Here is the input.
Amino acid sequence: MTDPQPGSFDPVEVTERLQMSPLHRFLGFRAVQIDTEVAILEMPIGPDAFGGTGNLHGGALATLIDVTSAMAASRANPFDFETHSLVTADLHVRYLGRPGGGDAVRAEARVVRAGRQLIVVETRVLDVEDRIIATGDFSSMLVPRRSPLRPDTASTDPSGPEV
Here is the structure.
């Protein structure tokens, strides 16, 4: 198998890239659909995503929204992954409920506007019965690629968006 490619529209390749990040792997993110119109990722409902009350942790949902939004943004505004990166500029999450059952939630992200540098995305998180449990407003900026914060560590995904 070849290395998963940055900017891929293939859910299998995108899932492989997601699994390169320890956080995304820990939360079990899986790509369902990636195209120029929508990015859909799933996250299992399980102990790794629970807070102290035994319910989905808001931070896990916010991370799912952030990553799914970044996937949509990176497909809407093609750029050179070697020289530039997308970084989250703003994220607002509204928690509206909890899943009514099932073993996963899914985030569906759609680009509202893609400019030269700023990309705005709206994302909904739904349970298996299509009930909205959270929404997110996201914006990202296209910036020149930066060196890692810790030069002694290699990036787990050097050519993907910084999410």
Q: What stands out?
A: The domain at 11-144 is CATH 3.10.129.10 (Thiol Ester Dehydrase; Chain A). Residues 58-76 form the longest helix (19 residues). The radius of gyration is 15 Å. The chain has one domain: 11-144.
